[in-house]
Amino acid sequence: MLTTADALERILAKTPQLPTSEVALDAGLGRFLAQPMQAHLSLPRFDQSSMDGYAVAEDGCGKRAEGSCLRVISEIAAGTEAKVPVSAGQAVRVFTGAPVPQGTAAVLMQEDVTAHPDSTITVNIAAEPGEFIRRAGADVSAGQRLAESGQRITPALLAILATQGWAKIVVGGVPQVGILSTGDELVSPGHPLPSAASIYNSNGPMLQALVKSAGGDCVRVEHGRDDLAALTDSLRSLSDQCDIIIVSGGVSVGDHDHVRPAMEQAGFEMDFWKVRMKPGKPLAFGVDPVHGRVAFGLPGNPVSAFVTFWLFVFPALRKMMGASGADLSLPAVNVRAATTIDNKGDRAHWFRGRVSGAHFEPLGLQESHALFSLSKANALVCVEPETTVSEGAAVDAWLLP
Length: 401
Ligand code: AMP
Ligand code: MG
What we know:
six-stranded mixed sheet; Molybdopterin biosynthesis moeA protein, domain 3; Molybdopterin biosynthesis moea protein, domain 2; 28 strands; binds magnesium ion; Molybdenum Cofactor Biosythetic Enzyme, Chain A; 4 domains; 31% strand; alpha/beta; binds adenosine monophosphate
């Protein structure tokens, strides 16, 4: 049976990157840059005031300037060019973000001077030389690398791209995702339960939300009966429209588990089935070699579907989008186990629980059907087979968004 790491390696090797496209800057949020970006403007663009106050020459700043009187010769607001230099005995009224005139040695805060009606000021508290001037290029210099290919477009990255005047950017694609929940027992929320053996479909809404949070676009969300021909038809139809198909349920060894043969009949080659993990063992992964589409058969137990989504589907979605490095997986933090965590089994066991402060504590029932404890969890921790993590020992906790 494959280890988690081997399974992930195989998935990433078979998952293609989607074609890139040029989009409006604001439409890039949450997507991934498809090319490195080089600054052509310095930040700040010019020497500017960081305060509302007065630009002064060397004689107007430093301790010995306190008590002196300076003549205010002009005013520069943000957006106005500084045309006249400031000289000894003079001050220029400036505002935050305004260019400072030539000859400026410092800016005095307006709170630190007394302004007189005859256009003079008295320096009460002098700024140090260089104070309250933002120097051109102090943040970014023209020519500097601003962002890398594969970097996620966050609001702050979007802002720095905007400083360069760019209204369009080239980004990776958005995966078109199809979700197929299988099971004759399933009923969509909002409908009455027809029999005492019916349950509501919770994987469908969960997977839809997970895909959305990863940055994918759920273009089809469907329910399939436990019937080979019907599932094959559904998968064929989904694969016409989707880059990734996520099936839940029907991948185990039961008489009503038809998903793997249905995938094959719909044109997917099965790359692997089963991973040495708990929950999530019956995970199946298939590839359509003609069109480069991929299909995941996630176990139907809700926690298994959840954990295998984060460990395997999320990285595949992100690779398709052009992500790299840390954006291919959940963020992890190193914390300490709040209690002893025991894995007597022969598969890696993913525990759900809570990270609070510097500790991780497993939460509630840990079986694969037990969704309630998952709904309270904020992290997953993996304990290797036949391993006991003692209270206080270091563990990597994968933080759930
Ligand atoms: P399966 O993988 O189809 O054998 O399903 C394993 C368990 O998960 C069974 O108890 C199913 O009823 C349950 N299950 C399967 N699919 C879903 C779903 N979409 N929502 C909630 N529970 C499910
Ligand atoms: Mg089933």
